[in-house]
């Protein structure tokens, strides 16, 4: 039976839409969730969309997705650049992982240019705002149907 795609969002993404629209756009996290649900529905998939500011909770959700999900989309926020714990949890997953960032991390400060998460990802999408989440769902849909 098909399992949902886990969409895991990290720290401060709950603030989307409230500040820095020139970097992160004007969509709120709730808007993003709705956008993902609509895209997944059109592709016959289900999504489980979550956000946490706590690294341990994010690790626990990745572990949950190992058995209860068909794939993972992860925007680890600032933990992308620091969290070996999230990397290890993702490396332990057999399901495909797509990393997403709203902004283009490579045109920003040098400390954002490296992401630990990328080493566990099948692919990385950044710089397309909320559209990046839809592209990630499409990419996973094709990985899942070819599995
Ligand atoms: O571009 C992305 O999606 C990021 O993952 C967003 C993170 C940032 O640390 C990464 O380098 C790139 C930050 C998310 C914080 O989002 C806010 C949105 C509005 C107001 C304040 C923070």
What would your notes on this structure say?
The chain is of the alpha/beta class and 147 residues long. It has one domain (5-145): Dehydroquinase, class II (Rossmann fold). The protein has 5 helices and 5 strands. It has a 5-stranded parallel sheet with strand order 2-1-3-4-5, sandwiched between helices. Helix 4 links the parallel strand 3 and strand 4. The model has no long low-confidence stretch (mean pLDDT 96). Bound molecules: ligand CA2. The site of ligand CA2 has 17 residues, from loops. Ligand CA2 binds next to loops.
Quick rundown:
It contains five helices and five strands, in the order βααβαβαββα.
List keywords for this structure.
Rossmann fold, 147 residues, 16% strand, alpha/beta
